[in-house]
Amino acid sequence: MFLKIACFVKVKEFHPDVYKGASNSDEIILRVIGAYEILLKHFQFESVERSSDPFEEPESEAFDIFVNELLCIGKGCSYSCVKRAPYAFSFTLESGTARVVSQGHVDDYQVQLAVGQCPRKCIHYVTSSQRIILQDVLQRVLNNPFDLGEAAFLESLISKAILENRRYQKPKRKPKSETQDVDWS
Question: What is the DSSP string of 85-98?
Fold first, then answer.
């Protein structure tokens, strides 16, 4: 809105009937309009980029599984998700913590038990785009374990995903409107 107003003010200022300067007013107006178009594209890209944050507005229901390996007890866990659902979870060789090995077990009762019975609450249901970002941040934390900022960022993203995924509502089905049985007289 402000961009449009600023452009309008400049075009009005350099209008051929108003502008009395030494430069060609038509050329100045073309430059102003060109700058307006460039800025408009830039701001539209930013607004699309902002609206596509998967942690602000999830694109679907949370069906993917993510394990926060920083909190996982691993092989010492009494309610081991790997023992409960070995087709969905496995232990990592590096740290011995649990990791998801396959997705798509939404309706599997054993996977749901593993998620619900985790004593450290380190297994979460997230959307696929959230999972990709969380795995990337987790990998950065594991590669640089002394960076507490990245670990805190991971925790905040998980918290935000949990909150927003609880708020997610399926798109409502549009009612069918039939005009055949309506008496228009």
Answer: -TTTEEE-TTT--E
For residues 32 and 12, give the distance between their C-alpha atoms in angstroms, rounded to a whole number.
Answer: 11
Q: Which residues contact 89 (CB under 8 A, 6 or more apart)?
A: 67, 81, 82, 98, 99, 100, 101, 114
Question: Which residues pair with residue 28 across a beta bridge?
Answer: none
Nearest residue to 39 (alpha-carbon basis) of 14, 64, 5, 71 = 5
Per-residue DSSP letter, 170:
P
Alpha carbon distances (Å) from 144 to 55, 78, 147, 156, 180? 24, 29, 6, 18, 66
Does the predicted model carry a pTM greater than 0.70? no
CB 59 within 8 A of CB 129: yes
Three-state SS for 123? strand
Give the Cα separation of 163 and 173 in Å (integer).
24
Q: Give the DSSP H or E segment for 56.
A: none
Question: Quick one: tokens of 31?
Answer: 């430059």
> How confident is the model over 2-52, as pLDDT tens digits?
677 777 777 778 787 877 777 788 888 888 888 888 877 776 655 544 456
- Please provide the DSSP assignment of 110-133 as one string: HHHHHHHH-TT--EEEE-HHHHHH
